[in-house]
Structures are given as structure tokens and as C-alpha cells.
Amino acid sequence: MTSSLSIHGLTKRFGDVIAVDHLDLELSPGQIFGLLGPNAAGKSTTIRMLAGIIRPTGGSASVLGLDLVDDIEAIKSHIGYVAQNFALYPELTVAENLAFYSSLYKDASHSRQNALLEQYNLMQFAHRLAGDLSGGYKRRLSIACAISHDPELIFLDEPTAGIDPVTRKELWDMFYVLAETGKTLFVTTHYMEEAERCHRLCFLSQGRRVALGTPDEIKRLPGHMRVYSVTCADDPQMVRALSQLHGVRLINRLGSRTRLVVNETLSHDELVRFLEGWPDTDANAREESINLEEVFISLTGNNQA
What we know:
The chain is of the alpha/beta class and 305 residues long. 31% of the residues lie in helices and 27% in strands.
């Protein structure tokens, strides 16, 4: 088996609404795969289908060589799933939560439970009620419970939402350790910094795939676009005027700098002439590389300043 996950035309309808629209994806063992999209783009619906929580309306998928529909019960014993709000039991201790989820799988031994408590720095809280943990440690416990049976494919639906940057980095270091052992991680996230950490990415918009590749490959997709950085005073009137300028796709304001994503209809000379008409503005318009966030916003259709 060369693919841990193979999806062809996967579709999910809710009445007249198409949540996931003929999605094609291929994931390899040892890969951290990131699925990104605006709210209601179909990310969680995709994961819930692949984890066997809801049935697809159309298409097909092979999960670890097993058919998503015909072999769903067998699939569940080989995957781990961390939902956005993982169901920990707050009245049970950390160790009791892990023991309960481990009991659902015959091969989740007591020694593995202890190893997970050590690996996720939870041993010190083993006898503390899960409900008394901080948000970051609740997330650690959720992940430990989800992988108690040593699954080969792990779905993580926004696993670091609301987590501080230090804890987020620590969790991602743990994700890399899992990937290095041959596990496949399927992650949804809204953080562009996390997207950069993935081996490959897919952008969804209204249920459809609009980009697929490594972070560097995706940043090269809008090859006809240019990014200019301008130093300027905080002038809302100028920003409004810029947003009306032909060729301007996106305006990002970063403190005293304004980043403009423009297409080929707006030349550098035209932009400089426009900027020269505004006081306290650097008209040099220095060209810079496009970042992943700017590509994401451009490709998913949210091009408002």
C-alpha cells in the first residue's frame, strides 16, 4: 500500500447545500497534511466523513487500503480522531480518561497509557480531574486518548485552536514525532503559521479544492500577482482609495506598513504615481514575496480590504 488515504470525487450534500464537492486527495504515510478553508468551506465535514461519523453522498475513498463505506468498522480501529471539542470526562482523572478510551481497543495496553502520559507531559497530572486542567493540557489529553490504540492515520480537527503559541509549538513538535514513525496526520487549521509546518496542503472554498501542493508550491500559484510593501501613515481615506484602484486584489495593513497584492493590470509605475499624491507616504512601493495568508485569501475569494 503506497497511500494511507485515497479520495476520489468525495461529495456530501445536506439537502440543497453541497458541503463537499467532488474532492480528490491522496495522502502518503509519514505525511502531515493540512486542510484549510474559510468557515463553512467543508473541512470538518470532510474529516467527519473520513472518520466514519457521517456517510458521504457520493464518490469513494480508500482509508489504509479499506473501503470507506464497506469497511468502516474495520477502519475505525486503525484511525484516531480529535474533534474540535473532544469529549473528555471532566469528573474523571487524567489517568481514568486515558484508561477509558484505551479500553475501547483491545491492543491499548497499560504500559502504552503510561508511555503516553510521559510523552504528553501528563504524568504529573495523572490524578487530577480532567475538568481542572488548563486548555492546553486538555488538548494534550485529548490527543493522547485519540492515539491510545496506536492508529496509523490520525485526524486532527483544529487541534490547537485557542492554544498559546508555546503550547502550539510543543504540540507540533509531537506531531512531527508521530509522522517520523510513519503515521499520517490529517490536520485542519486556520493558522497560516501551522499551514507552513505541513508537508502538503489543500485549500477548500465552498466545498471545492482550489489549491493543492507543498506550501512553497502553493505560494507560486498566483504567479501573475505581485506584492508591494508601502510605508505610510494611518490614513483610512488613502486605504479606501487604494481599494478602488484597478488591479488591487488585497490590502494587508501591518502597523505602519501596508502590503498590496495586485494583478498585472496595475503596473509599478502606476502605483508609484498614485502614492505620490498622498502625503506622509513612501512612494517606493518595494516588491516583496507573497505569503501563504495572502495566497489563501486570494484563492478562496475573500478579497476585501
